[in-house]
Design a protein that fits this description.
8-stranded mixed β-sheet, alpha+beta, Immunoglobulin-like, 2 helices, 4-stranded antiparallel β-sheet, 17% helix, 14 strands
């Protein structure tokens, strides 16, 4: 009967080749998942859908970007580079608005790469107002509505069905 004795012998040449192979795989992975700071997209394989976000920051620094995300001064898109600004009585996306009962003044400004199909305002999940601009990519919309407590947010839809939606603005009446 023969016995088996495992033995290990360090092979410096093989170790160096393994290290180089692992380093090359790491570089290829980083290249395939590279961050592009211009449009805040992470590039994935073509089979994945790429979404984007927009942020309003005080300074273009790591702290400024994280503050914008923390304060919800941001919006999301399905991938199109849509610009969106949404405010209620001067309060920006992500803010809590406390004021007396009365009228709420909504302001939406959007710039889209394609023609706009519709712009909607929601309170919680209920559609409260919608406009359908004609043949435009740049649109500003201001309206007033009776004040009702809740979370208000805007949605912009292009003709190619790419869309953007804002972070909510919370309205809590005083008193």
């Amino acid at each position: 009967m023969q016995s088996f004795r495992p033995s290990f012998r360090y092979d410096a040449e093989q170790d160096k080749l393994d290290h180089e192979r692992a380093r090359k795989e790491q570089i290829e992975y980083k290249e395939a998942h590279k961050y592009d700071p211009f449009d805040a997209r992470v590039t994935y394989h073509d089979s994945y859908r790429v979404d984007s976000t927009g942020h309003y920051w005080d300074s273009l620094s790591r702290a400024g970007v994280f503050d914008a995300i923390h304060d919800r001064r941001c919006y999301a898109t399905t991938g199109a580079p849509i610009l969106l600004s949404f405010s209620v009585n001067g309060a920006q996306m992500g803010e809590v608005l406390s004021c007396e009962q009365g009228k709420l003044a909504f302001r939406i400004h959007t710039i889209c790469p394609e023609e706009i199909e519709r712009i909607s305002i929601y309170r919680n999940t209920e559609l409260i107002e919608r406009v359908t601009p004609q043949d435009t990519k740049d649109y500003e919309w201001c309206i007033e509505r009776e004040a009702t407590d809740g979370a208000y947010y805007a949605e912009v839809v292009q003709r190619d069905h790419e869309y953007a939606w804002s972070s909510p603005i919370l309205y809590c009446p005083e008193g």
